[in-house]
Please model this.
Amino acid sequence: MRKITDVRDFEGRIKRVLITEEQIKEEIKRVGKEIDKLYDGRPILLVSILKGAFVFMADLCRAVSVPCEIGFMCAKSYYQGTVSTGIVNITMDLEQDVKDYHVVIVEDIVDTGRTLNDVVKLLKARKPVSLHVVTLLDKPSRRVVDFTPDISLFTIPDHFVIGYGLDCGEFYRNLPYIAEYSEE
Ligand code: IMP
Ligand code: MG
Model:
């Protein structure tokens, strides 16, 4: 992966917008209501997987009306450029003891499925009252482990995407939309 040299180079790699800010907003509103219905007034713990899910978490937590606590966990999946190496590391653990909670994992994207497969196994072993997974994006064609999120906002084809929390080489997380990344 070439290093970004300036703003023209940076902008040149945003190939095309796949999902607009408005589409994201609309889907989050819908899923917020779905979560409210699912938990029916019971308090939940939203667990965001850092760093990619921080933007989605900020919007999703404001779209739910059930009482909610917020938690963070840092799972790093190692990439060489845009290709997953298959190594997942928990670099920061959740502060809450999930034993007393209805847990909702909030993730940016399910790609090979390895990250969430590991995170779900780890949290389930701590015996939460219940556990569900919400992902903003799902790339089912890339799966190498058998993993299906409970709620997925958008299913996308096999493109490397950036924006709305998702990065390439740590850049582009602040784009308000989801775009396809240009490898050239
Ligand atoms: P998985 O373990 O392969 O499912 O990958 C999950 C993690 O890889 C996500 O949480 C993202 O951080 C990262 N990732 C996967 N696909 C993309 C992409 O298209 N753009 C940016 N990050 C991605
Ligand atoms: Mg991530």
Q: What stands out?
A: The mean pLDDT is 93. The longest helix spans residues 21-39. The radius of gyration is 16 Å.
